[in-house]
Request: fold
Amino acid sequence: MKQTKVIAIANQKGGVGKTTTCFNLGAALALEHAKSVLLVDLDPQANLSDYLGYGSDDGFPTMTHLITEVATRNTINSDAVKHAIRKHNKIEHLSYIPADINLANAETAMSMTLSRETILKRILTAEVISEYDYVIIDCLPSLGILLINALTAANELIIPVQTQKFSMDGLTALTSLVEQIRATINSNLNKTVILPTMADNTVVSKSALRVLSESYAADLSSVVVHKSVEAAKSSETGKALCRTKSKLGEEYIKLAAEFERGVF
Ligand SMILES: Nc1ncnc2c1ncn2[C@@H]1O[C@H](COP(=O)(O)OP(=O)(O)OP(=O)(O)O)[C@@H](O)[C@H]1O
Ligand SMILES: [Mg+2]
Reply:
């Protein structure tokens, strides 16, 4: 049995680099370290699924089916979960569970059910995740029930923070939610990494980085992700940044190495 790291990537602020980090950290762990990685799309926008090359309904279950099943029947067949896991068609060791727009309806169904915080945890059972070294969950930009499910299933959290003006807005709301979840339903959620993203040479970016290091010194990642057009290119082509010989690729390689060294 593997000691699986389950990492949620969250920030209720939109467009801060959650999905880019989810795919490229996962791809770097799979490609550079031959680690077995499962990426979970928990966002109805399904950007991660697009990035991974998931087209449209292929007849197999998605996150929407799995969540709806648990929310309405309170249980799930482990075969359904296995069928929901696709292998990436180019990157060895990388698998994923896609989402689709109907996940928004599943979220509504979730809010009507008991023990609604543990639905994802009941899908990602010890048996399911034991095949993977890393399970990385891409969250939607909201503080709702899907995010709470991710934080209940995870043992680590990465908060990408765009180094811009107002970048820290909302961070207190998120970190206090994390505290509440740790104190009540998930004492295993014991590590938070603040990851500065889209850093550049502007005064605003430098000052945001300084404020982050003053306020979150203990949790701040030593790897800073810089702003680069390579990010958009990568999501367009589906090619992992670690294979693009770019500065951004190097940064995601470093981030993966920090996880592998046990720094995070
Ligand atoms: N380091 C970067 N430099 C420049 N652009 C980036 C960088 N990282 C991500 N981007 C771009 O910024 C946009 C938002 O990134 P991404 O989708 O990863 O954010 P997100 O936090 O997942 O957004 P959402 O909250 O909508 O899910 C995308 O167009 C992406 O290509
Ligand atoms: Mg996203």
In short: The pocket of magnesium ion (ligand 2) is lined by residues 18-19, 43, 47, 138 (CB under 6 Å).
